[in-house]
Amino acid sequence: MDKDLYQQKLLAHYISNWGQYYKAFTWKKGPYRNLGDHFRILEFPPTTERNMWAYATLGMSCYDDEFALELHIFSDEQDQTLVESLIVVAHFHRFRSRLGHWHTINWGRGWRLGASCSYGLISLPYLDGPEL
User: Residues with Cβ < 8 Å from 95, sequence gap 6 or more?
Assistant: First the structure.
């Protein structure tokens, strides 16, 4: 599978779970450019089935990775700090140390502005079930 096909299949998978409406974000500062032209963070708005914003990596892993990993995080509010946070985690995964299930993430601050929780756990997508 090549890079473009991986991206298309991943995007189709997200759309089938969270709906066809989304925004794709890039980031002008920090480590974003090292992740390649194909990398994006996608923001899916709440739907009638899911009353949360979903932020997801698109291209955190390479198409030929043995264990491809893409992350998403839910929020009850639209929050651009989650875009930046996922970029930082994706950069760490690609250039420092490979992440996987059951690893913890130290956000270095609250996971959202004003939040006291500063760690995250990479787990299976329990809220969306086995389809995701």
Answer: 31, 34
Q: Give the residue among 17, 44, 24 at the shortest CA–CA distance from 127.
A: 17
CA quadruple 80, 82, 83, 84: dihedral positive or negative? positive
Buried b or exposed e, range 88-121, using 16+ CB within 10 angstroms: bbbbebbeeeebeeeeebebeeebbeeeeeeebe
**Phi and psi at residue 23, in whole multiples of 5°?**
-115, 140
Q: What is the pTM of this model?
A: 0.91
pLDDT of residue 1: 62
Pairwise CA distance, residues 75 & 28, whole Å: 23
Q: What angle do CA 12, 16, 21 make, to 5 degrees?
A: 85
